[in-house]
Specification:
It is a single chain. By secondary structure, the chain is of the alpha+beta class. The protein contains seven helices and five strands, in the order E-E-H-E-H-H-H-H-E-E-H-H. The strands form two sheets. The protein has a three-stranded antiparallel beta sheet, with no helix packed on it. A two-stranded antiparallel sheet has the order 4-5. It starts with a strand and ends with a helix. InterPro entries: AASS, Sacchrp_dh-like_C.
Length: 220
């Protein structure tokens, strides 16, 4: 998260992008050996706070104090320490971070329920509770591929392919439709003995013979 940068995907949305895996092999997987830069990562709404470790504690305020090295447990002291640690180019960024911490309850006296003894899993459990869809709410999946092309004649252009998918009111979520349906289709094709998938070991989806048919079965 320390390397997260603003990423414009579509007007009306404010994301940051950060690398989440080793992307160097994907030049080979995607069969684009001429690509000079290949970057894979994840998108988060700008302002989401990031933390990395957990000490057993009674309240979130105590965990925050231990994590940041704040002198006291009072909210103003915790905020002061966050301000010291955060390097924000804009004052609005600092406000968003603090609002995010308050919304998540990380400055509160609410008791923590640790998960697996680490902060990542504990925060994940917290977000599962906070971010669960309420009746009438919809989720959003946003995905973008961006290709910066430089042709032999020196002409440069940027080609983008963007997916914006909302869940259905009272129906399937966007995550279910974009991941669950395609995954289920691939499993069915495997059970049906689809030739290209009938191999030993891990079969990756980076060739058209693999990703093409499931894409068609799932509706394009």
């Amino acid at each position: 998260m320390a390397t997260a940068e603003e990423s414009h995907v579509m007007d009306g949305y404010k994301f940051v992008a950060y690398p989440n895996r080793d992307w160097t092999p994907f030049r080979k997987f995607y069969v684009i050996p001429g690509a000079r830069s290949v970057i894979r990562g994840s998108l988060l709404y700008k302002g989401n706070p990031a933390m990395e470790w957990l000490k057993e504690g009674v309240t979130w305020a105590e965990v925050q104090q231990r994590a940041t090295g704040a002198r006291f447990l009072a909210e103003e002291d915790l905020i002061c320490r966050v301000n010291e640690l955060c390097e924000c180019a804009e004052a609005s960024d600092r406000v968003e971070i603090l609002e995010g911490l308050r919304w998540m309850g990380l400055l509160s006296n609410e008791k923590v329920t640790p998960r697996h003894g680490n902060l990542v899993d504990t925060i994940s459990a917290r977000l599962e509770k906070l971010c669960s869809l309420e009746p009438g709410e919809l989720d959003l999946v946003m995905l973008q591929h961006k290709f910066v092309m430089k042709w032999m004649d020196g002409f440069e252009e940027t080609i983008t392919s963007t997916l914006k998918l909302f869940g259905e009111p009272g129906g399937y979520s966007a995550m279910s439709k974009s991941v669950g349906v395609t995954f289920g289709t691939a499993i069915q094709m495997l059970l049906d003995g689809f030739g290209p998938m009938n191999q030993r070991g891990v079969v990756v989806k980076y060739t058209k013979e693999i990703y093409g048919p499931p894409k068609g079965e799932a509706g394009g």
